[in-house]
Amino acid sequence: MLREGQTFPAKFDLIANAMMASKNRDWFVIWNPSYSERIRAAQVGLLSVVVIGPPWLGTTSKQDIAAYVAGELYYNTPLTSLLAQMDGGFIVMIWSEAARTGIIAVDPIGRYALYYSASNGQVVWASHPEPVALLTKGEIRLNQEALNIYLTLKGVPAPWSLLEGIEKLPPAHLLVIRETGVEVKEYLSLKEAGAYEGSFLEAQEWLIHELRCSVEQCVAHSQPIGVFLSGGLDSTTVTTLACQKAPVRAFSVGYMPHYHTDESRYAISVAHSLGVPIEVYRFSSADVINLLDTIVACLPEPVADMALLPQVFLASYVSQSVKIVLDGTGADAIWGGSNKFVAEHYRHFYMRVPRLVRRGLIYPLVRLLPTSRRWPLTNRIYQARIFLRGAEIPCNEDRIFAWSVFLPHELVKKVLSTTWVLDKDVGTDILRALIREFGMQDTISRISYMTLRGISAGIELPKLAAVERLSGLFIHTPFLSNRLIRLAFSLPDSYKVSGPYGKLVLREAAKRIVPPLVFQRRKANFSPPVGQWLTGQLRELFWETLASNEGFFNLDAIRHMWWEQWVGWRDWSAELWAIFMLQHWWNQAGCKRGA
């Protein structure tokens, strides 16, 4: 028998309630039992439809989606044409009684995760992997390969999951469930965007037009609109377009005590320039302790991004004022804004330095200097060390891989115990496979595809989904609409990166509408002072958590990293935080395992 939890098909209202947890708004799940009476056809039989997602999906109102899906199935037209039009994060579940067929689809960017296991004539799925593992395997076991992937990429992209025997449905894919088994199909390919034939000026106009249309979707469903504003190019562009259409309230988060990565002062300046009211909330280590258990319990899998906690903290306050928030996430990934693109420009000059000077002086010196991110100067040395990680590699793609991974395989082998580390570098292998999968020749488009599918889908987007789940907000990301993604992949490299400047077409388009002060600052790195907290206020919690280590990690290596972090000689804050989050998540999973 095919099963969802216990029996399949089941009441989809129960499925929907299980899919989203905590503070749901009524628009996250729409299920009206009257559809059971309205959607009947002799050829199709009874259809049950559940849609989980925002109050709008593309240009189709959510209230009509169930009938739309039924019509698509009834007239034998492709369901993919509907799904390809739907923006934002969503899960669509359909059951056709007559065809004895179930269809589950996840959104094209991987915002919402769906975990499943298909074996022994049954299918079990859920929004978290633990219940699937318990129902199908009777136990929760960590996946050795996925553990190595997590440490390499700071997250686990689909189809892998951290639990053994559990798969994750990839973005833009369908899970088709029949009595004979399951099949996974792609319904929207980003590899077929085609080549853009317009001018650079026309590309700017098209970009602003599509952004404005995506922003207007929010305006039509909620006023006032909230905006997460950092003062950077992406969030400022979105804020500017939003305040042209509706009342806007900006929100930002800073750190207490002040830290050099705090962007709130830039956000305040931009908000005042636009005439937008702004509220700034200060995040401290005490808030980490208050939020950590709730966040980890909510996460389907650990997210190693340190910015998750201040974002949840900010969203908890924002949700008291607005229901929908705009966010600039995604622009760096698809428009050439990542530091690795700029690094290529600086490498061109670096390689002009005589090899003897590079190898005999610069490289050893940078390795000897302190790299703590506690101070701006040593933070520059930290960035230089990452740059040198790939600068000497002759192959372009291998160089990009070296700059893209979170932990090089040599360091993964250092922090994992010998029984858990793999000889092969599985994280980099995933990036290689994604590069090969993308058919276009443009280097930046290929790297952007690799970033979107291999890194963003494993870190950035699950992080936003967790913030939504915990706060009850819906976070709209205009830069990640289907039409804008396809536009980005169609543009030539010369429209995206020029010398030390990334996001070229976006920068030039934004100059017409955003305040000039946005272009007078360096690209910022929004990250909390976790290194100081782990060696200070969170020291006891960190070691208590690691004490329950079940043989995953080499604790001697971690103690040495922690000591270097404490004395301020090396910066291991991101690495220590990733290890801490994984162990904390596993401890939570252990509680569920023992329940």
Rg result: 24 Å
Number of strand elements: 16
Overall residue-averaged pLDDT value: 81
The tally of helices reads 26
Which strands sit side by side, in order, in the main sheet? Answer: 1-2-5-6-10-11
Would you identify the regions where 5 or more consecutive residues have pLDDT less than 50? 1-45, 59-63
Taken as a percent bin, the fraction of beta residues is 5-15%
Coarse morphology: globular
Share of helix among residues? 40-55%
Structural class: alpha/beta
How would you characterize the largest beta sheet?
6 strands, antiparallel
Question: Summarize this, please?
Answer:
The protein contains 26 helices and 16 strands. The model is unreliable at 1-45 and 59-63 (pLDDT under 50).
List the helices and strands and how they pair.
Layout lengths: L11 H8 L9 E2 L4 H4 L8 E6 L3 E2 L2 E2 L3 H10 L4 H5 L7 E6 L4 E6 L8 E5 L2 E5 L2 H8 L7 H10 L13 E2 L4 E6 L2 E6 L13 H20 L5 E4 L4 H11 L4 E8 L8 H11 L3 E6 L1 H14 L9 H11 L5 E3 L4 H5 L3 H12 L4 H14 L7 H16 L4 H9 L4 H7 L10 H12 L5 H14 L3 H12 L2 E3 L5 H9 L13 H7 L19 H5 L4 H9 L7 H13 L5 H22 L1
Parallel strand pairs: 12-13, 12-15, 13-14, 15-16
Antiparallel strand pairs: 1-2, 2-5, 3-4, 5-6, 6-10, 7-8, 7-9, 10-11
Helix pairs in contact: 7-22, 10-11, 11-20, 15-16, 18-19
Describe the structure in your own words.
A hairpin with a 2-residue loop joins strand 3 (56-57) and strand 4. By secondary structure, this protein is α/β, with parallel strands linked by helices. Helices cover 47% and strands 12% of the residues. Helix 10 (285-298) crosses helix 11, helix 11 (308-318) packs parallel to helix 20 and helix 15 packs antiparallel against helix 16 (396-404).
